From TrEMBL:
EC number of the protein: 6.-.-.-
Alphabetically ordered keywords of this record: Ligase
Stretches of the chain forming a coiled coil according to its record: none
Protein name: Putative cysteine ligase BshC
InterPro entries according to UniProt: Bacillithiol_biosynth_BshC (IPR011199), CC_BshC (IPR055399), Rossmann-like_BshC (IPR055398)
Bacillithiol biosynthesis BshC N-terminal Rossmann-like domain: residues covered: 1-377
Domain of life (superkingdom): Bacteria
KW Ligase (keyword) present: yes
Pfam families with a match to the protein in the record: CC_BshC, Rossmann-like_BshC
TM helices/strands, residue ranges: none
């Protein structure tokens, strides 16, 4: 396994400016994305009041069903004894969701170790599972490679309705069948059986999407002592009751702060990704199993276009006595993480950091400051087959990803193998046909204007047949050179699937299938520099 690190320009201007320390975006954060800011943030955290014993017991209770490793137990003790945390989070995707979920976990582990050394104190990595998320369509799919192309395999989730990832009870038979189909699309290797048995063992022991996700997260990172919690945990919700009360009481100020920040961001040339509304309450409530976004309407909080309604006092009563019914959105989730944990640094992806850019004023409303917001480590895994093809065609990762060199090679190959004489004959026939039909149309029009559409329809029929011949000619030429075209397709699908980062598309499991379940642990042994470079890992 070899590590190569190089800068890749982010897709968004906001992210590019943020990681490069541009002042016009840094003003929206309490700290820049640098480990040098940890010392100052650590000093601020000394005033951060957290019931560490209570939060520690909530973490322990949630993690116990999967088994708590010695390292995790040590981290729990460190937390209870005063350690700050480096935190990240993600939805409970099937088979961990895209690779970047694993990359986030690796990021907080690496960053917590680095912070611990820098501050000469214990720093603990934490993963916040967004189990309250009810967008099951977003988490219930997997991508696979089929004949050199990307295929999205959707899991049938309609039966779960508006339930969240933590409350939706898995239909084990359907999930089992779905994952069997997915695993069948992977090549048979010496690791396939173990991978298959491990995944299904965790599925059999899970009741919800979150249970399945947490079990896999624990399996991959227990030896690193990664702590994790479900945001929808009833015990955590109970602990958060007083915080929900504050968010309800200050909901109008929170909305105003987001709107003001987004207006300023737009003036600076950045997008308003939250698209905040003045009446937003930035909280969800669960009613008869459905998670409903609340809005303020005068003195009331309403949802589902007025189908549900609560007075301020009613909502405050729910926050105090039934907090498990409430949950956060993208605006209030960072606040809740900060209230529950002493957060030294939050690790997020480009989308999350774009949300955070609008939240500095929100933290101020709650008498807090933002933690250090660090971009997660971006990674691309290059398997041995792709390595061989890169060598064969004398390509580098940068040429494939940044310079689109494969597109140039494919176009050059196509140009070199075209049957130009045959193409010329078809094109000449097309021109002659169009000229003759022009004469026919004039003649027919002189007889009756009603015949003109018939002539045009007849012409299009013949032109379509000529195009069919041209396409078939091209298909045959490509087929005769299919090996090279397939090579180019494979390189692109692996390194730039659908013009995207690999980590945003594929699950870790195709790579575990080829390199074994220890792959994640092997990645953690690499000497990652926590900087703005992308990590290219040659397996």
């Amino acid at each position: 396994m070899r590590l190569e690190e190089q800068y890749i320009k982010p897709a968004s201007q906001l992210m590019e400016d943020y990681i490069n320390g541009k002042a016009n975006i840094l003003q929206y954060f309490s700290y820049g994305p640098s480990v040098e800011n940890f010392s100052k943030r650590f000093e601020v955290l000394q005033q951060h009041k957290v019931d560490r014993a209570k939060v520690g017991s909530i973490l322990r209770k949630f993690m116990e069903p999967n088994g708590i490793s010695q390292k995790a137990e040590a981290h729990l003790a460190d937390f209870e004894n005063g350690a700050p945390v480096v935190i990240t989070g993600q939805q409970a995707g099937l088979l961990t969701g895209p690779l970047y979920t694993v990359h986030k976990a690796i990021s907080v582990i690496v960053l917590a170790k680095q912070a611990s050394e820098q501050l000469a104190t214990k720093v603990v990595p934490v993963f916040w599972i967004a189990g309250e998320d009810h967008d099951l369509a977003e988490i219930s799919h997997l991508y696979r490679g089929v004949d050199g192309r990307l295929d999205k395999l959707n899991f049938p989730h309609v039966e779960y309705g508006k339930n969240s990832a933590s409350t939706a009870k898995l239909n084990k038979a359907k999930v089992h069948s779905y994952l069997e189909e997915y695993f069948r699309s992977l090549p048979e290797t010496e690791f396939s059986k173990e991978m298959h048995e491990t995944a299904f063992a965790f599925l059999d022991g899970a009741d919800s999407f979150t249970d399945f996700f947490a079990a896999l997260l624990n399996y991959f990172f227990k030896e690193e002592g990664l702590l994790y919690i479900d945001a929808a945990s009833p015990d955590l919700r109970k602990y958060e009751a007083s915080y929900f009360i504050q968010m309800v009481e200050k909901s109008e100020e929170i909305a105003e702060a987001v709107i003001a920040a987004e207006q300023n961001l737009v003036e600076e040339g950045y997008p308003a990704v939250i698209e905040a509304e003045p009446q937003a309450a930035n909280l969800f409530i669960t009613v008869e199993g459905e998670r409903i976004l609340l809005q303020r309407d005068g003195e009331e909080f309403v949802g589902n276009e007025g189908a549900v309604s609560f007075t301020m006092d009613e909502l405050l009563d729910i926050a105090e006595n039934s907090p498990e019914r409430l949950s956060n959105n993208v605006v209030t989730r960072p606040l809740m993480q900060e209230l529950v944990f002493p957060v030294l640094a939050f690790v997020g992806g480009p989308g999350e950091i774009a949300y955070w850019a609008a939240l500095k004023g929100v933290f101020k409303v709650m008498d807090m400051e933002m933690p250090v917001v660090m971009p997660r480590l971006g990674m691309t895994l290059v398997n041995r087959q792709v390595q061989s093809l890169l060598q064969k065609y004398q390509l580098t990762f940068s040429e494939v990803f940044n310079e689109l060199k494969v597109v140039e090679l494919r176009n050059a190959l196509m140009e070199s193998i075209r049957e130009k004489e045959a193409e010329h004959l078809i094109e000449e026939t097309q021109r002659q046909l169009e000229a003759k039909y022009e004469d026919i149309q004039k003649s027919f029009s002189a007889i009756s204007g009603g015949l003109t559409p018939l002539v045009e329809k007849n012409l299009q029929f013949h032109l379509k047949q000529l195009q069919f011949l041209k396409n078939k000619l091209e298909d045959e030429v490509v087929l005769q050179n299919s090996t090279q075209f397939n090579h180019f397709g494979l390189i692109e699908m692996e390194l730039r699937p659908d013009d995207n980062f690999q980590e945003r598309v594929f699950s870790p499991f195709p790579y575990l299938n080829v390199y074994g379940l220890e792959l994640v642990q092997d990645l953690l042994k690499l000497d990652f520099q926590y900087d703005k470079t992308h990590k290219i890992i040659y397996l």
